Each structure stands twice: as C-alpha cells, then as structure tokens.
Amino acid sequence: MIFIHRLGWFIGLVLFQVLVFNHVHIYEYATPVLYIYFVFSLNAAVGRKALLLWAFFLGLAVDVFSNTPGVNACACTLFAFFRPFILRTQTVRDMTDDFYPSISTMGFSHYLRYVLIGTFVLVGTIQLIETFSFLRWGSLCLKIVTGTFVSVIGILCIDSMRRKK
Amino acid sequence: MRNLLNLLLKYDYCLLFLLLEIAGFLLLFRFNSYQGSVFFTSANRVFGAVYDVAKETTAYFGLRTANKRLVDQNTELFLQIERLTEELKKYTADTVLIGEMRSNVLRSYTLYDADVVNNSVIHKDNYITINKGETDGIRPEMGVIGGNGIVGIVYKTSSHYALVLSVLNSKSSISCKIKRTEYLGLLKWDGGSSHYALLTDVPRHSEFLLGDTVVTSGYSAVFPGNIPVGIVEEISDSEDALSYILKVKLFTDFARLNDVRVISAPGREEQAELERNVAEIEEE
User: Fold this and answer.
1) Domain containing B212: what range?
2) A136, B191: Cβ pair inside 8 Å?
3) CATH code (residue B57)
4) Is residue B23 part of a domain?
5) Domain that holds residue A36
6) What is the H or E stretch that residue B111 is in?
7) How much is the pLDDT for B106?
8) Same domain, B160 and B202
9) How confident is the model at residue B43 (pLDDT cuts 50, 70, 90)?
10) How far is A130 from chain B (nearest CA, A)?
11) Share above pLDDT 90 across residues of chain A, in percent, rounded to a whole number
12) Are the Cβ atoms of B41 and A70 closer than 8 angstroms?
C-alpha cells in the first residue's frame, strides 16, 4: 500500500516537473527543481540503499524527459547519499521509524535548513554538470543561487499544502 | 578475507552509491557520441507519447497568438505574391515558362509537417522532439525550419518521433551567408540568451552592416539556400583577430515553437556521400 502511495507521488512529481516546472525560467536563470520533494519527504524507515535507488530512478525519469541523460540521476543520487547526514544535523529528537521529515514534525526553522542545504547540493550539482565544458562563474553562481531559492520556496509550499490536507 | 567481506557488507550503500553514480556518468558521456542510443531521450516511444498528450492540451492556449501570427504572415505573403507576379508579367509574357518554374521549385524539395512535442532553451545543449519519425520519412541530418526561419537539424530518429539538434546547441554549426553581399560564415551558439546566436568565421575582408539579414548558404546538403536566419546586431573580432564574429538576432523564437517543417532535398544523400568520401580521402 505504502509502495503504491509512494509511486503515485513519484509519477506525479516527475510529470509536474517535466510538464510545468521545466518550462518555468525566471529571467532565463532560475528553474525550480521540485521533484526532489519526493526524496525530502521519504520517512526514516527507508534504508540507505532503498533511498539511493529511489533517487537514482527519480533523476533518471526526469532526465529521459528533458534529454539530459545522467545529469539529474547523478545529482539526485549524490543528494540521497548525503540526506541521512543532513537530516541528522537538523533533528533534535531521536528518529523513530515512522518519522516523516516535514514542517510539522521538525519545526519550520529546522525544516527550512534541511531543505535549503539539500536543495543547494542538488541544484549545485546539476548546474555544475551542465556547464562543466564552458565555465562562466558569474552565471553559474547566479543560476545555483536563484534556482535553490525558487526550489526551496516551492518545496515549502508543497509541504504546507500537504499538511493542511 | 572475512574482515574484508565484513567491511564491504558494512559499507554496501557506499558501493551502491558509487555504482549508481558511475551508471549516471556513463549515460551522460555516451549521449554525447553521435551513435548513442535514442532510448534514453524523449524520442523514446513511451515518453514521446506523454509529451504528445500534454501538447494536445496546451496547444489550445497558444492558438490565439498563433492565429494572429499566421494572419500577419499571410497578408505579407499575399502582398509579396501580388508584387512578384506584377514584376514577372513585366519581364516575360511566356506563361508556359512560369508554369515550368513553379513546378520545378515544388519538385526539388519534400516538406514534412511536424509538431513540436518537447523543447528546451536553457540548457547548454538544447534538443527539440517532434512527432514524426522514420515511418513518416524523417531521416537524420534533414533540415528543420519554422514559420519564421531555421530551427535545427534532425539528430536521431525513432519510428514515430525524432530528436532535433536545435540551433541553440553547442554542437550545432550551420553554414550561412549575409544575404546582401553573399559572404559566408558558420552559425553557432555559445549559451546565454535564446534570442541570439553567433555567425563565426566571417572573413576579414567581407562587407556587411548592422541590420543585414543572415540566410542559409545552401552549400550544405541539409538546408536549401536563402532560408531566413536572423539580423546582424553586433560586430566583434574573433580571438585570433583573423575573422569577425557577428551577433545575430534570430528570427525564430525558440521558446515558443509549435509547427515546424522538415525539409528533404533531392540528392541530399548523394551530396552527403560525396562529401564524406572527400573527407575520408583527405584524412588518409
């Protein structure tokens, strides 16, 4: 049951990303990367290996749609690798298995920091891989900062909408 | 040995992580080779179909502006036809000749109608997916044009979809010329805005002005000549100062592509074959 629930989120977020958010470019720089909310919201019971696999296939699905094979898959896997560490630095209590990272369980400031660090790792990696043949530091930094900013706002919105439901 | 196995088992998620990253990078680099598979792109059948459905829905939202543009173009063309037939009448009264010319123009190129189902403008290498493929007669290295000007070159094809190498791609390089003075250059893109591309390798002695129109040269087997590309907006020197680099404002608005035409020129394969042979001989 929980697997089907997860798969629903997986497909929904990938479709939203490739059909809507991939076409949002604020001043040709900031593109929101919201599909990663899937990895952010997986509960603590999901083992590290399962987390890596989910993240890899999530990235791959987005890649196949946007003709960037490997870019999102690599970035997503890297982020999933670091997620347990980031999560641990931002949680005060011990995590039980049914712990879902969200605003309500972690508190706003901890959740914000968790999402901010995670998104920065992801967007930074995506932009680095995309531009590594012609480096322009100025535009690269601008892309990473604006991209992270828009994505974090989007993820916070999704999470608070989910909480209300 | 036992310790080693224990160590491996303890850190097996690290191994999995490395494995997945390697798989990702393999995909990344393999896609850059021309012979790479079409499977991991949006020209794949399943993913193409998803975009098709989405396009069907969103296409309606753009109908109003599309209509307006078509009307504009139509009136312009009507006026042009009017003027040209007048001119033609002045020069020749021989109607047979006109008929012959008209059928010659039609005979020389085959046009395939296609819809854009996926498109991007922000990456370093942008691709466009269209909903016609091998079964419709599309082959790699055919030219693709839009209502306003050139769009790109067909890169890979599956049975029902094709991936087009957009002008906005670092791998794209199209032979163009300045319409007024016929001097040649290569159209390239170096990232940045989707409204501009660069005309490089323009000879030092060539003549041009800001505002000159750039068109395709017609020397390659891909595009016929005189297809509009853009307008010269800025002039600068190349790094070695042996040629000019012109910043060209493109006629095609890549962020809102819908209908495109794929051009197949007669003798396209023959010319490509000939040029390949010469290249091979030169390499030896």
Assistant:
1) 174-256
2) yes
3) 2.40.10.340
4) no
5) 2-164
6) strand B110-119
7) 46
8) no
9) low
10) 7
11) 12
12) no
Confirm if B161 and B131 have CB atoms less than 8 A apart.
yes
Distances (CA, A) of B54 to A118, B45, B48, B51, B117: 30, 15, 10, 5, 8
CB B167 within 8 A of CB B152: yes
B162 and B64 in a common domain: yes
A41: CATH: 1.10.1760
Structure tokens given for A32: 């929101």
Q: Beta B174-178 vs B213-216: how paired, if at all?
A: antiparallel
Instruction: Report chain B's mean pLDDT, rounded to a whole number.
Output: 80
Confidence band, pLDDT 50/70/90 cuts, at residue B34: very low
Compute φ and ψ for B197, nearest 5 degrees: -135, 175
Is B75 domain-assigned?
Answer: yes
Residue of A nearest to B165 (CA): A67
Q: What is the pLDDT of residues B53-76, one digit of tens each?
A: 777 777 777 777 777 778 778 777
Spell out where B120-258 has E strands: 125-130, 143-145, 150-157, 162-169, 174-178, 184-188, 196-203, 213-216, 228-237, 243-250
- B221 within domain boundaries: yes
Least CA distance to B119: which residue of chain A? Answer: A66
Model ipTM value = 0.77
| Predicted pLDDT of residue B35 | 43
CATH of the domain at B210: 2.40.10.350
B193 and A68 within 8 Å at the Cβ level: the answer is no
* Mean of pLDDT values over A97-101: 74
Contact B21 A53 (CB under 8 A): no
Question: What residues in A contact B122, CB-CB < 8 Å?
Answer: 25, 28, 31
B120:A77 CB<8 A: no
List CB contacts (< 8 A) between A65 and chain B: 42, 47, 50-51, 118
Flag whether B211 is in a domain: yes
Per CB-CB distance under 8 Å, the chain B contacts of A53 are: 16, 20
For residues A135-152, average pLDDT = 83
Please give the residue of chain B at the shortest CA–CA distance from A56: B20
Closest CA to B144 of B251, B219, B48, B222: B222
> Residue A20: pLDDT above 50?
yes
Domains in chain A: how many in total? 1
The reply to whether B159 and B183 lie within a common domain is no
Torsions phi, psi for A122 (to 5 deg):
-65, -55
* Judgement on whether residues B158 and B189 belong to the same structural domain of the protein: no
Name the closest residue on chain A to residue B44, using Cα atoms: A64
